[in-house]
Design a protein that fits this description.
The protein is an all-alpha fold. The protein has nine helices and two strands. Strands 1-2 form a two-stranded parallel sheet. α4 packs antiparallel against α5, α7 packs antiparallel against α8 and α7 crosses α9. The longest helix has 28 residues. The chain starts with a helix and ends with a strand.
């Protein structure tokens, strides 16, 4: 009989695009999955925060890069979807008696963004690569959690896997299309930083935290 870990891994692979799986530098550690299941309220609260931040990032790109029609189209759609997801998470929290409150951000996104170059178009390319990594990691973590969740939350997260997968594809496509030179080395650089962030010890649980210290 297959082990639970094998079944979970197979389910993950079935849910996620192959390109996304190969893009991520490593799998989410099992210790994070256990940590998430021990903190269901924080998981939902920080998930809501992440959806809000994702919409904000898309909007900031809309305002800054008005001369990029394809980017404007993709980011407009992404911002609408992320805000819808935010509304859906808040509704789930309310139904479950989870009080939405301010919590500190994880070091994940800032740990990636501190390496963004200052000059254009390199700055934009770095931001798009980071966006692809964040969306891909979010997709993978939803997929890792699904086998352990109640039916309502599992169904919701399954729908998010599909949309986050599209967002990953859009960010990566934009990065490749708008770059003036190959970006494989830059992707590798940020992938290494991302792997460090999701595998290093953290003292507080967040959706994008590392493993418990």
């Amino acid at each position: 009989m297959p082990s639970t870990d094998t079944l979970e891994s197979t389910a993950c692979q079935d849910l996620m695009p192959a390109e996304l799986l190969s893009f991520l530098p490593c799998a989410t550690p099992d210790a994070w999955v256990d940590w998430a299941l021990d903190n269901p309220e924080l998981l939902l609260i920080d998930h809501a925060q992440c959806e809000k931040k994702a919409a904000s990032t898309a909007m900031s790109l809309l305002y800054r890069y008005v001369d990029q029609p394809l980017l404007l189209s993709k980011m407009s759609q992404l911002a609408r979807e992320e805000l819808l997801h935010f509304e859906q998470v808040v509704k789930l929290m309310e139904a479950r008696g989870v009080v939405y409150r301010h919590i500190s951000a994880s070091r994940y996104a800032e740990g990636l963004r501190r390496h963004v170059r200052g000059e254009e178009p390199e700055r934009l390319i770095d931001i798009l690569i980071i966006g692809a990594l964040i969306e891909a990691r979010s997709c993978e973590r939803f997929a890792r959690l699904i086998p352990h969740l109640d039916d309502e939350l599992a169904k919701f997260y399954r729908s998010l896997v599909k949309s986050e997968g599209r967002h990953f594809e859009d960010y990566l496509m934009l990065a490749r299309r708008l770059a003036t030179a190959p970006i494989d080395e830059r992707i590798a650089f940020f992938s290494d930083r991302e792997a460090e962030l999701v595998t290093m010890p953290d003292t507080v649980f967040r959706f994008h935290s590392g493993v418990p210290a």
